[in-house]
Amino acid sequence: MSKKDIRALTKDQLRDFFVSQGDKAFRGNQVYEWLWSKSAHSFADMTNISKQTRDQLEENFVINHIKVDNMQRSKDGTVKNAVKLHDGLIVESVLIPTESRTTACVSSQVGCSLDCEFCATARLKRMRNLNADEIYDQVAAINQESLHYYNHKLSNIVYMGMGEPLMNYNNVMKSIEMITSEEGLGMSPKRITVSTSGLPKMIKKLADDEVKFNLAVSLHSAIEDTRNKIMPFSKNFPLTDLRESLEYWYEKTQSRVTYEYVVWRDINDKQEDINALVQFCSYIPCKVNLIEYNPIDDGEYQQASNKAIDDYVYTLEKNGIVVNVRRSRGKDIDAACGQLANKS
Ligand code: SF4
């Protein structure tokens, strides 16, 4: 019989296990602390637990800890981890340092079932969802790297790596629960952003669940036909549905949304594209991140001219919309936006 992943157990279940073995319930608390806040890779690491108890755990459970298989460091300080999962599959996560913060960008799925035309991950088929502990481990590993290289803890997390987080809803939510809990990393949910390609039903579910983290939506165009070309799956999710779900989100959470937006040459770099975005931004409080693009090949999707970006910034600001231009980091190691899974 295959052994169970011990981190699939809640704290209460772990306490119950020890009681069922004739031990004290608080042993469950000790082990739980080792598993999460101390990020133990093996039962042998649990030095304040008796050898007999560790053997007992070994007989019943496994710890499916991720392993950083390959770590690359960019000239600009960005770190990319290729992370091996217990079944040999690989995902990538990135540490992005800036002067004021260090951000972890983590993956939520192996591959992706969506089909964004500009994205390297879309070229891999979705193989499976990540478990909550596999997402948590990526964050914990990057936190260690942040301490090692930059002498301070991780300050922010974005769920913007490989996969669509809202298609792995329960595990993403559980990972955030652990990251924010005192028994995990104790981070504030306000420092976490979940980025979705825009699935209206799931955005409403987030609102109903009254989540406290931030929401970002990869919009890329506020013109239906253009968006459908860039993100073909969005034919099933018209912009009117997306708008309605975002209004619902804001009504319930009072939390403004960030629109992630890449400007591509000859795709969405005209004044009519800018005007449509301004209109879309009028529905709820929001801000826009214009993200620099890193071509994954020499095909249709190429970075727009600086003039086009300037036109976006000018018009958005003229209309009172907060806009940031995000320069990509880690291009030399394929860690920049849209590039994950380019090589591995
Ligand atoms: S951009 Fe995100 S949602 Fe779209 S294919 Fe890539 S990983 Fe999936």
From TrEMBL:
Gene3D superfamilies the record matches: 1.10.150.530, Aldolase class I
Catalytic residues in the record: 92 (proton acceptor), 337 (s-methylcysteine intermediate)
A single BP term in Gene Ontology: tRNA methylation
Residue ranges of every copy of the Radical SAM core domain listed in the record: 98-332
Subcellular location: Cytoplasm
Amino acids binding [4Fe-4S] cluster: 112, 116, 119
Positions that bind S-adenosyl-L-methionine: 163-164, 195, 218-220, 294
Broad enzyme group: transferase
Highest taxon of the lineage: Bacteria
EC number of this enzyme: 2.1.1.192
Annotated GO MF terms: 4 iron, 4 sulfur cluster binding; metal ion binding; rRNA (adenine(2503)-C2-)-methyltransferase activity; rRNA binding; tRNA (adenine(37)-C2)-methyltransferase activity; tRNA binding
Cofactor info, note text: Binds 1 [4Fe-4S] cluster. The cluster is coordinated with 3 cysteines and an exchangeable S-adenosyl-L-methionine.
Cofactor(s) required, per the database record: [4Fe-4S] cluster
Cellular-component GO terms for this entry: cytoplasm
Catalysed reactions, semicolon-separated: adenosine(2503) in 23S rRNA + 2 reduced [2Fe-2S]-[ferredoxin] + 2 S-adenosyl-L-methionine = 2-methyladenosine(2503) in 23S rRNA + 5'-deoxyadenosine + L-methionine + 2 oxidized [2Fe-2S]-[ferredoxin] + S-adenosyl-L-homocysteine; adenosine(37) in tRNA + 2 reduced [2Fe-2S]-[ferredoxin] + 2 S-adenosyl-L-methionine = 2-methyladenosine(37) in tRNA + 5'-deoxyadenosine + L-methionine + 2 oxidized [2Fe-2S]-[ferredoxin] + S-adenosyl-L-homocysteine
Family from the record: Belongs to the radical SAM superfamily. RlmN family.
Function: Specifically methylates position 2 of adenine 2503 in 23S rRNA and position 2 of adenine 37 in tRNAs.
Note from the entry: Reaction proceeds by a ping-pong mechanism involving intermediate methylation of a conserved cysteine residue.
Protein name: Probable dual-specificity RNA methyltransferase RlmN
Name of the encoding gene: rlmN
